[in-house]
Amino acid sequence: MTQFPQTIHFTGTNTPIGVEWSARNLDVIGTIPEEIDGAFFRAVPDPALAPMFEDEVALSADGMVAKFDIRGGTVDYAIKYVETERYLLEKEARTALFGRYRNPYTDDPSVAGKDRTVANTTPVWHGGRLLMTKEDGLGYEVDPETLETIGRFDYYGALKSETFTAHPRIDPETGEMFFFGYEAGGLASLDVAYGIADKDGNLISEQWFKQPYCSTIHDFTITEKYAVFPIFPTTADLDRLKAGGAHWAHQQDLESWVGIMPRYGKVEDMRWFKGPKGVSAFHFLNAYDDGDLVHLDVCLSDTCAFGFMREAGGVERGQQSIQGGMTRWTFDMSKPGEEFESRVIGPPGDMPRIPDASQGRMHRKGWYLTINPEGGPPVPGGPVGVSFNMLVQIEPGNGRIEAMPLEPGMAINEPVHVPSSDPEKDGWLLMVVDRQTGENSFDSELWVVEADAVAKGPIARVPMPLPMRAQVHGWWVSREQLDKAKARKAQGLAA
């Protein structure tokens, strides 16, 4: 193709921009607290070239890494493409060489066996290293100062998995990173690799196990005692891929599963719990231990949120018909059997966030995005085709819920949390908000919101001089972390 298709994957907030740019001292409306000092990294899918096929999806877009650098109340911004092997091959050819979403059998023969990942889903910071990740391959290391791509990262050859999750979990006390890769042994395989890296970013453990069927395990959780692997029935099939078909197809009549193992134990100790049929979740607020109980807070829906995955499985459901809610699943590890308890604790939504210090511990508060039924038609775009327009604050312990609804014609991207040194304060949330100005045109702003008073709206806004394409996930890195990584790098170069 020579032009982008006029589908939801390339219109609305998914309209391609494809511009690398930077700016210093952006205008700030209001005051950014001095304590917000660091970088807000964002993963932004943005196709550099028109796709090979008309039915391509937004999730295949080339990854861009964006950075809001905030210090002393000022804001700088930069965005660059992640120079994956795929991006560089197509840049040289000036045309698309890779075919349908996660299907190498539809590629141009010239790129057979090449790395297909676009590293467009989550910026991950650990051990002084910034990785851009997408779960169909390994992460790509990026220089956190310049945003230049350093290269594919496999823990210096120690990691054997072919894939690396977009949702690792970092223990706030030990600094260890717990992660996994599914399809670890190859396309449509049942292999899952469960890994642990120490606080300095060294791989210390990698174990493999088989999942019940090849599902899209987008996220998982940890507690202080366990690693928790939820499995939902959006499945891959090698024969379908070889025929040029979809990687994922949702199976509405297939059970979900949750695998729970000691987080420092052996995969042979995995215990499986059977869940309801047809349900789906791509993200989890958190999990924690409560004696013999494990509580898991799930952004649950009654079918898959991605239309192209539903359609591939013959599930004919409109986006507006999907039901769900923030749901707490509770597992009693002292009792035998496959059953567990389930109860709804909040309205439907996704893109959840807790303070990093609460990871794997009982969380007092959490935040996530939802669609306000009174907010007018949702803005088209984003990963699932419709955008969120309300931020929700939830307190599971007492059931209190607070919200920040946006005006009609506005959309909100996933927030990141910035902690405060004041124990009486919950810190701040940073997020990019878009306002529709035309059919496929938008004005964007960075918003700063008090995390314990979201209903007040932003205390500071940073209007962006150029359009912004919808992000997937983001990550906050403090100035202290950035400076330590810079010092380590300088010492390494000196040595």
From TrEMBL:
Claim: Metal-binding is one of the keywords in the record: yes
The UniProt record lists the keyword Metal-binding: yes
Protein name (Swiss-Prot/TrEMBL): Dioxygenase
Enzyme kind, highest EC tier: oxidoreductase
Superkingdom of source: Bacteria
One of the Pfam families matching this protein, by short name: RPE65
Cofactor binding, per record: Binds 1 Fe(2+) ion per subunit.
InterPro entries assigned to the protein according to its UniProt record, in alphabetical order: Carotenoid_Oase
Cofactor: Fe(2+)
EC code(s) of this entry: 1.13.11.-
Disordered: annotated segments: 339-358
This protein's UniProt keywords: Dioxygenase, Iron, Metal-binding, Oxidoreductase
Sequence similarity: Belongs to the carotenoid oxygenase family.
